[in-house]
Amino acid sequence: MKAFVLERYGSPLREVEMPVPVPAPHEVLVRMVASGVNHADERVRSGEFKAIFPFRLPKVMGGELSGEVVETGSAVRDIAVGDHVYGYVDLAATGTFSEFVAVDAATMAPVPRSVSLVEAAGLPVVALTAWQALVEMGKVKKGQTVLIHGGTGGVGSVAIQLARHLGCTVATTVSTANIEAARELGADIVIDYRRDDLARSLANTPVDLVLDTQGGATLQASLGVLRPGGTVIGITGPPDPAFARRVGVNPVVRLAVRALSARTRRRARALGVTYRFLFITPDSAALRQVAGLVDDGVLRPVIDRALPFGQTPRALAEALAGGTRGKVLVTTDPKAVTNHG
Prior knowledge:
The protein is of the alpha/beta class and 341 residues long. The protein has 11 helices and 16 strands.
């Protein structure tokens, strides 16, 4: 089978021929039909996470997929050969940039019935991010106000839809070209980050929760628009001590992680708000609920483009370049390719 591997940190992904893996008792072997590319893939490639998730290289990259089950391990009971599944395999596992991948059956869920297998690959990472930020970590309630940065990107496009479903007033930041697209997704307040001042735009709209997809200056500005007791949940960093404890890093790395977020956490405390870092985890149960929301017409995957699987490095570069509306995918199905350039 063909696969894209990382041979050393910082080097480009390389296409190689590999044997088809044999699933362990708790795993299923999935013929990959589509895989999403994500900023986390680049953070792994560059070595940013090597102190936290040290890989034995070379390693097949990629964290999410949709496909067809072609073999099941001896201990698997709730997934059968021929099932169409989708899921996120965890950053520490990776392996979805390959024609076949053996994955923990507990990370997979049946795809939504109302979308194609290729479209389903655009959901696991962004839907789990939105779900874990808004429902599990943020515990948002009807009537609250949520600010979502990058509202027409992969995460933002699904988070807007989910926040609306949860009964929230939704504010979002986008570029000028994406204002109407953000409104179509359901945003109540659309802020042009190139022209509008965030604090002035939300002066009369105290925010209960911010989902920050940008980091840096955007994260710092977000702390200032929260009502007292509000929370910023960041997905690009800096990581916080709770994350370090959860993943079980050694004491030296734990101290380094604490230092990375110290300034942000101090400023948050001074403002009477909270900063938390979200690093998503696989969750089959949540993906089953997401599939139900998709089939009920509450959520829809937003796909910017699907490139041929052989162009996986290019797909990653295009996703990192920004300006996309929704997810960038790679697919093994030639009929599903939407960008042939």
